[in-house]
Amino acid sequence: MASELGFEKPITELKNKISELRHFTEEKDIDLTDEIVKLERRLQKLEEEIYGNLQPWERVQLARHSERPTTLDYIEHLFTDFLELHGDRLFGDDEAIVGGIAKFHGRPVTVIGHQRGKDTKENIRRNFGMPHPEGYRKALRLMKQAEKFNRPIFCFIDTKGAYPGKAAEERGQSEAIARNLLEMAGLKVPVICVVIGEGGSGGALALGVGNHVHMLENSTYSVISPEGAAALLWKDASLAQKAAESMRITAPDLKELGIIDEIIHEVKGGAHKDVKRQAEAIDDVLTASLTALSKLSEEELIENRYEKYKKIGEYGLVNDVMPVE
Question: What region holds the CoA carboxyltransferase C-terminal domain (predicted)?
Answer without folding.
Answer: 38-292
